[in-house]
Amino acid sequence: MSVKRVLLDTNIIIHREASTVINNNIGTLFRWLDRLKYTKCVHPITLDEIRKHKDPIILKAMSIKLKSYEILKTEAPLAPEIAYIIKTLDKDQNDINDSRLLNELISKRIDILITEDIQVHEKAERLNLSHLVYSIESFLQKVADEYPELIDYKVLSIIKDYFGNINLSDEFFDSFKEDYAGYKDWFNRKSDQICYVCKQQDKIRAFLYIKIGACPKVT
């Protein structure tokens, strides 16, 4: 089985290599890429964009860090679908650069593209490439679904908190709100009471409420 090649957009590289953490899940993303032995690729476009940085110290640091990635040595010929997108939709050079990233994907020179750029995701949907274009969050969800046996559940922890600090909009509670009339009101009335929450990747996986003098209620 050949090694998969993942193309990382400029915004992903900046998330990873910036001195200030922008997205807390960036480390988890790169840990999974290494664990699954993906080849981390960077398009020449990213090099050009980083070279435009005005701070010479940051530019030098980023240039050194980029050596740990595989830089694409050539660009794929422009596919007809991409040429059409560029002609009809793209308004400036940044838009064209986004399309050039997708061109590598549609030409099958890379296997997947990871980007936080909403416009790239919208273009991917037009091109029927959405299943190959991921955000940080959607990629982490993909590997969690495909490789549950590799998830390190030891990192899960139980947090003691007040009902009022829990996000009732979390999808974990959807079925309870659908099945039990008044569940939302019941939940909100307990805003000052203690509960216990278990989270993974900022999503609720388990919720415990202990009613004093009665058996525990687990949801």
Describe the structure.
With 219 residues, this protein is an alpha/beta fold. It folds into 2 domains: 5-146, 5'-nuclease (Rossmann fold, 3-Layer(aba) Sandwich); 154-218, no CATH class. The protein contains 10 helices and 9 strands. It has helices spanning 10-17, 26-35, 44-51, 56-65, 80-88, 93-106, 118-126, 136-146, 174-179, 183-189; strands spanning 5-8, 39-42, 70-71, 112-114, 133-134, 157-162, 194-200, 203-209, 217-218. The strands form 2 sheets. A 5-stranded parallel sheet has the order 3-2-1-4-5. It has a 4-stranded antiparallel sheet with strand order 6-7-8-9, with no helix packed on it. A hairpin with a 7-residue loop joins strand 8 (203-209) and strand 9. Helix 2 crosses helix 8 (136-146) and helix 6 (93-106) crosses helix 7 (118-126). The longest helix has 14 residues, at 93-106. The protein starts with a strand and ends with a strand.
Give a brief outline of the structure.
The chain is an alpha/beta fold. It contains ten helices and nine strands.
Features:
disordered C terminus; Rossmann fold; 219 residues; 2 domains; elongated; alpha/beta; 4-stranded antiparallel beta sheet
The main β sheet shows up as:
5 strands, parallel
Assign the CATH topology of the largest domain.
Answer: Rossmann fold
What is the number of E strands? 9
Radius of gyration: 22 Å
Uncertain runs with pLDDT below 50, 5 residues or more? 214-218
Number of domains: 2
Shape: elongated
